[in-house]
Amino acid sequence: MSIIHKGTASALVLALAAGMSASAVSAETVEIIYSDTVQESDRRSTLLRENFGDCLGEGFEFSPYFGATLFKQGTELTAMQRANLDMANLAIFDFYNQVPSTSILGTAYLWRDYEHMRATFNSDVLDSLIDEMEDATGIKVLAWPYIGTRHVNIRGDRKVMTPADLDGIKLRMPGGEGWQFVGEALGANPTPLAFTEVYTALQTGAIDGQDNPLTANKQMKFHEVTDQIILTGHLIASNVFSMSESKWDSLDEAQQAKVQECAISFQDAMDADTISQESQLVDFFKGEGLEVYEPDKEAFRTHVLEVFQNSRFSELWPDGVLDGINGL
Questions:
Q1: What is the pTM for the complete model shown?
Q2: Cystine design at 56: which of 60, 154, 167, 300 (Cβ 3.0–4.6 Å)?
Q3: 216-227 tens-digit pLDDT
Q4: Distance between CA atoms of 178 and 171, rounded to whole angstroms?
Q5: Which helix (H) or strand (E) holds 102?
Q6: φ and ψ at residue 4, rounded to 5 degrees
Q7: H/E element, 15
Q8: What kind and span of H or E run contains 311?
Q9: Are 290 and 228 in contact (CB under 8 A)?
């Protein structure tokens, strides 16, 4: 029969208690699994970790996966609905198949400029549309971080001043009906391709060009395999920074408030950084030998908006929302 010394027993009890306490703390920690298409080295990934992940603080464990290593681009929404993923930075066209009315937010030249976009999201104009998105998909919309204004970036020396000049250009667009229609409205021949495959496709000539914000062009080094950037400014782009409803509902009120606070912190950091980067990048690309110029933007805007308004997409737009946006 073993005999445990009184002091040893006391130490054992304290150790067990400490272990139980640590387990209790661990059990209360909220793990958040996040998936993104952008690379881990991308500035957006750093801003996310610093302004969202670090902002959450104790009580949360933020686990981000980058470079589409966890879920492929365009599959994140389904993964969230199946409770296989907690959070993602979704594109508005990810919602189209389930909530067709959201196509209005993917309309090229919808926003006059960044300030118009941000003013709209800060107003109540989109409240009913966001409610519809959340109810139909089971996704909680937390913020709308600005990721940059999209421009056309192509190989070769063809001068592009109007949509007609893009005729026959194989322009990579993200997969999905909405994205492909944007490319079509611009006057190009849209080609679906994953973001991670664009560099090689440009390098080999499988595609003639792609559209992305200047920040993404630099990060992915698309300037190494293209010759010009046409500053069409057709989409002032924001992502839908989202959490699955099941994850959101599992949080208590204080935790929800913290997640929302940190989502806005990330949005504000993204906005400021993107605007700062964009102000410098035209000179950077010119220094890299690319021709960077503005086309006839009014010709693009008039043509593209006419194509959208005469399309099947406009029939799905919520009543009054376009007027509300234009009125801001």
A1: 0.85
A2: 60
A3: 999 999 999 999
A4: 14
A5: none
A6: -100, 125
A7: helix 6-28
A8: none
A9: yes
Pair 65, 34: CB distance under 8 Å: yes
pLDDT tens, position by position, 55-113: 999 999 999 999 999 999 899 999 999 999 999 999 999 999 999 999 999 999 999 99
Task: Please provide the distance, in angstroms rounded to a whole number, between the alpha carbons at the two ends of the chain.
Answer: 83
Q: Tokens 């389930």 identify what position?
A: 98
Spatial distance between the Cα atoms of 33 and 54, rounded to a whole number of angstroms: 14
Which letter does DSSP use for residue 90 in this model? E
DSSP H or E segment with residue 182: helix 177-185
Cα–Cα distance between 139 and 130 in angstroms, integer?
10
- Contact, 35 vs 70, CB < 8 A? yes
pLDDT tens figures, 75-88 = 999 999 999 999 99
Q: How far is CA 55 from the centre of its chain?
A: 20
Mapped to the 3 state alphabet, what secondary structure does 36-74 carry?
A: CCCCCCCHHHHHHHHHHHHHHCCCEEEEEECCCCCCCCC
In 49-142, alpha helices (H): 54-56, 76-81, 114-121, 127-137
H-only helix segments in 251-320: 253-287, 297-309
Q: With helix as H, strand as E and coil as C, how does 292-304 read?
A: EECCCHHHHHHHH
Number of Cβ within 10 Å of residue 27's Cβ equals 7
CB neighbour list of residue 5: distance below 8 Å, 6 or more residues apart = none
Q: How far is CA 126 from CA 143, 206, 246, 323, in A?
A: 13, 39, 23, 11
